[in-house]
Structure prediction request, 530 residues.
Amino acid sequence: MSADLIFRNATVYPGEGAPRRADVAVAGGSITSVDAALPQTEAAEVVDGEGLILCPGFIDMHAHSALRTHDDPLLTPKILQGYTTELIGPDGLAPAPVAADRRGERQAYLRGLEGAGPEQWSWSTFDEYLDWLEGTRPALTLVPSIGHNSVRDRVMGGDRRAPTATELAAMRKEVRIGLENGARALSFGLIYLPGTYAETDELVALAEEAAAFGAPLVPHIRNEGIAVLDGLAEMIDVARRSVAPLHVSHLKSRTDEALIDGMLKLLEEASAELSISFDQYPWGAGSTVLAALLPPWAQEGGASGTLARLRDRDARARMAEDMQVETPEFEGIYASLGPDRVVIANAAPPNDGVVGRTLSQIALERGVEGYTAAFDLLLESELDMTMISHYATDEAVRKIAAHPLQLVGSDAIFGAKPHPRLYATTPRFLGRYAIQDGLVPVEEAVARLTARAADRIGLPDRGRIAPGKRADLALLDPTQFRDEATFDEPAQSPRGLAGVWVAGQAVVRDGRVTGARPGGVIRTPFPGSG
Prediction:
């Protein structure tokens, strides 16, 4: 027997099933043997796992990394918490497809969440975008989604109306092309533009294309506030009518924690007939673009339309009025949380100095109302601003995290003072919630981060430590692997990560990145699809 790499004496959590003490051999990027005591043999590298946990590499079910490899191909904060695979293009906000004459508009709209990417986007089609993405040579594997918002914008622009029959057929074709070229999910972002303008029947028609491939629908539902049950019910209806699997993004109740039991009951009942799961980041605070505070009508026409309204006195007055009321049609983040619980996470010049401060603090300094401060900041920085919004207790977060349908998605957005989930999602869920606090068994937490996530997005080659599987692996010290990042000091990677391997190549050793870039981009259709 020969091997490139052997782990000896580790406690192996295989991705499903009970842990056991074992040796693991790797050759040619794949796991070749898992045995209680492998015979002594020559290997290029032998790693002593005594006292350590060896897991499959973690899979992020909600990653805003679609353009970040332009600036950081290692995706450093992600691999330093053990991620080896990411599902990108969530919330309907993939960078492609995009009409040639809409590239600048979409780039401006996505910049806060996904980054700008190259100065000039060179792609129009989904396949052309994947060519570009592959050329950045990422350290981990990026799994694309086809985004409803991007498809709608490509076909219809930013119009607030229902599609014609011809336009709906064109959107279905774009979704099908994305799935044929490797997209493993159809994502929706029903608070983002122009997806928020879509009626349920439009969603069902596009979901039928995903169903034909066995790919899940991955929605940011229409309302996570007072109408969260209605938002969930709509997407369950879409899944039922289309016969597509459903995976709900970042499950939460932003306004009323008493609704959580109803949310979970709704999903449980639907799971009796449908394939259903959801993901969650383990904090009671979210992060998105500051423009999400604005009512949908104010954002019609994309970035240029929004900026024009921010310059208009009458439009501002109407926006301010609408933002102070939460309705079933408009989530009203400002109304439900107020300016005290909205913190600026990233800001383009000339507002770099406001990062880390609340809207209330900024408004007080400027002598204006909180909503006026938001309008001014968005206008001055041309919408390139993100926020952190604090909405829930840790008790509420833990209730959702304990549910067996839960998987883990970081929803991490890069920035000057980002949400700590960018650096600490896996150590918080696995290290704190599971290993330290016993909220879920450790083997269950590992399964959700690995095998179940891999199954959900059709990646049969990873997520498990077994012969023949891809050698994506994370080795960690269970006594040290905890979240260090805080809202005040978010850029802190966890201690206790001994190493991370992608296809058998070390991308992290002793808590430091190696610079290796063995990842890639998934470009094959969902396994078993037509």
The two ends are 40 Å apart (CA to CA). The first helix runs from residue 76 to 79.
